[in-house]
DNA sequence: GTGCGGATGAACT
DNA sequence: GTTCATCCGCACT
């Protein structure tokens, strides 16, 4: 399938875009090795007014800088000193929105994913959760700020179209510090898919 | 320069 | 359900 175009990423409604990313296919080609899967879980981070966003209050630092670029690039950062988390930057330049990819269903390069994850067979935890899928796809800070229409990391369109009844909207994970914004239903996932992290929320 | 804590996951009890 | 690995971004001095 064709890669998603800059116009897709530059939509202004990051919450709607997070919903639309479900079913699309995320690929990486790291060290010449292709891996990829179907996006089944996302979270929207809504710019400078969202207390859970790294760009809350228009915070601009070397880490958050990629979020301020025009939509269509990667924002990868290290969390808890251990895990890399991959986000899709969205919206216009200087509107720092992003969608965190939290779960994918493996499609391509499963053997490589098993190696990277130190596993012997494909279990859901291989790519369920943002840290897990980043490791399986070989995503680290080397891919930070890379354009998503390039040949290292990209997202392809899909014929998969989920009916609203198959999609769950729920509060985001791990953002209790965001106070009133912690309860916004800006997490989206495919109902019943085993590659969704923390299914019972 | 220092100190705090986090958009997690795995291995425990 | 609880603990902990392990780093650096960020705020403040």
Give the secondary structure arrangement, pairings included.
Elements: H1 6-9, H2 14-20, E1 25-30, E2 33-45, E3 74-79, E4 83-90, E5 97-108, H3 110-117, H4 130-136, E6 153-156, E7 167-170, E8 187-190
The protein binds a DNA duplex (13 and 13 nucleotides) through residues 43, 45, 52-54, 59, 61-64, 77-83, 85, 87, 100, 102, 125, 129-132, 172-175, 177-178, 197.
Explained architecture:
This protein has helices at residues 6-9, 14-20, 110-117, 130-136; strands spanning 25-30, 33-45, 74-79, 83-90, 97-108, 153-156, 167-170, 187-190. It is an alpha+beta fold and 201 residues long. The protein is globular, with a radius of gyration of 15 Å. 42% of the residues are buried. The mean pLDDT is 95. It binds a DNA duplex (13 and 13 nucleotides) through residues 43, 45, 52-54, 59, 61-64, 77-83, 85, 87, 100, 102, 125, 129-132, 172-175, 177-178, 197.
What is the strand content?
25-35%
- Shape descriptor: globular
Quick one: biggest sheet? 8 strands, antiparallel
Distance between the termini: 32 Å
Helix run count: 4
Instruction: Specify the structural class.
Output: alpha+beta
Arithmetic mean pLDDT: 95
Can you tell me the residue ranges where pLDDT is under 50 for at least 5 consecutive residues? Answer: none
Question: What helical percentage do the residues reach?
Answer: 10-25%
Feature tags:
201 residues; eight-stranded antiparallel sheet; DNA-binding; single chain; 13% helix; 28% strand; globular
Please sum up the structure shown.
With 201 residues, the chain is of the alpha+beta class. The protein has helices spanning 6-9, 14-20, 110-117, 130-136; strands at 25-30, 33-45, 74-79, 83-90, 97-108, 153-156, 167-170, 187-190. Helices cover 13% and strands 28% of the residues.
């Amino acid at each position: 399938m064709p890669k998603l175009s800059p116009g897709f990423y530059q939509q202004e409604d990051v919450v709607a875009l997070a919903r639309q990313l479900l079913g699309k296919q995320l690929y990486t080609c790291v060290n010449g090795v292709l891996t990829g899967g179907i996006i089944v879980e996302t979270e929207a981070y809504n710019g400078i007014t969202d207390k859970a966003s790294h760009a809350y209050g228009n915070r601009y630092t070397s880490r958050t800088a990629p979020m301020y670029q025009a939509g269509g690039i990667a924002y990868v950062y290290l969390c808890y000193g251990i895990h890399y988390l991959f986000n899709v930057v969205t919206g216009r330049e200087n509107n720092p929105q992003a969608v965190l990819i939290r779960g994918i269903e493996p499609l391509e390069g499963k053997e490589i994913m098993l190696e990277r994850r130190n596993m012997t067979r494909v279990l859901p935890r291989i790519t369920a959760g943002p840290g897990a899928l980043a490791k399986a796809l070989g995503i680290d800070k080397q891919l930070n700020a890379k354009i998503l229409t390039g040949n290292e990391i990209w997202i392809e369109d899909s014929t998969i179209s989920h009916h609203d009844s198959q999609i769950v909207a729920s509060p985001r994970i791990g953002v209790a510090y965001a106070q009133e914004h912690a309860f916004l239903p800006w997490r989206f996932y495919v109902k019943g898919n085993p590659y969704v992290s923390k299914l019972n929320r």
